[in-house]
Design goal:
By secondary structure, the chain is α/β, with parallel strands linked by helices. It has eleven helices and 13 strands. The two termini are 33 Å apart.
Length: 311
């Protein structure tokens, strides 16, 4: 398979590319160069800033045909249109990284239970023209899905992930959480918080590869089966690094750490599981990522470094 990966040196992208290379696929990375590629001569490189329309269009103009495009950086309808405008007739299909955020802030009543893929239909959503910085992250992702599913002349799949966890998280949330625990910082969490499920970054990369290798189309949730609360996250981190943790259940004006949510915010992975994907057991990956973060194995380029380039 001949694959073009946008964002292939990023948090999830590196895991995806590793799986593609392991399967013997021919991989081309489209990257801004802000983060060096660890793959050497195993991949081809195309230098372009995906958030600069002119730069992107110029960079891909002379590229040949790809069986599949994986895009990690499609945040809104503007980005989605860039894909359609530049790759119609030049790719066999497209896989984008979407988000479980498509299920929130929709104006519908409070949801009980797990969100399934059917609860946001991108084929009936009217995609606004505004960029993510104008419409917000959740609406931006809804618009990106909607534009592609309604306008792309090639098959499309969208991976809807919850919070992605790894020791080199480019948002720095995970490292900050572990650092706070190790420093003995009091953890203030409002009472009555809900459960969330997450996804291991290695599983996210493997999931994207699975969607591509199996020819899946449509939206797929990708998440661990296990769900935990913010208090459970804090206590487990403390146990792994051998620290005591002081959790205070109280309202606070400060930013709540440890992935707090006021109510359950779960996305169901049942569809993917029923079709053959196996998510790694939470306990098998969470503890090892905490240990790596505690050892200072972090990210050199942050999510905000990337997003700051988006116009």
């Amino acid at each position: 398979m001949k694959a073009l990966v946008v964002g292939g040196t990023g948090f999830m992208g590196m895991r995806l590319v590793s799986h593609l290379l392991r399967e013997g696929d021919e991989v081309t990375l489209l990257t801004s160069g802000r983060r060096p590629s660890p793959f050497g001569d195993d991949v081809s490189m195309v230098m372009a800033d995906v958030f600069d329309r002119k730069s992107f269009t110029s960079a891909v103009a002379d590229l040949g045909y790809f069986d599949i495009l994986f895009d990690q950086l499609c945040f809104d309808a503007v980005d989605a249109r860039l894909i359609v405008d530049n790759f119609s007739g030049r790719i066999g299909r497209c896989i984008i990284v979407s988000s479980g955020a498509v299920y929130r802030d929709t104006g519908t009543p409070v949801h009980v239970g797990e969100f399934t893929e059917e609860e946001f239909d991108p084929t009936s959503h009217v995609p606004g023209a505004g960029g993510m910085n104008e419409v917000g992250y959740a609406e931006g992702k809804r618009n990106a899905e909607a534009y592609l599913f309604q306008n792309a002349p090639f098959p499309v799949a969208a991976a809807r992930f919850p919070v992605v966890i790894g020791h080199d998280d480019t948002t720095l949330r995970f490292q900050d959480c572990v650092g706070s625990i190790m420093s003995g910082v009091k953890v203030v969490i409002p009472p009555g918080g809900g459960r969330r499920n997450f996804i291991w970054v290695d599983d996210a990369g493997r999931f994207l590869h699975w969607l591509g290798a199996t020819g899946k189309t449509g939206a797929y949730n990708g998440a661990s089966v296990k769900a935990v609360t913010a208090v459970e996250i804090a206590e487990r981190m403390a146990a792994v690094v051998g620290r005591n943790v002081h959790v205070e259940l109280a309202e606070s004006a400060s930013k709540y750490p440890f992935y707090y949510t006021p109510a359950d915010a779960l996305i169901s992975p049942a569809r993917a599981v029923s079709e053959g994907f196996t998510f790694t057991q939470f306990e098998k990956w969470f503890d090892q990522e905490v240990k790596k973060a505690a050892e200072g194995k972090g990210s050199d380029v942050t999510f905000m470094d990337i997003i700051s380039q988006k116009k």
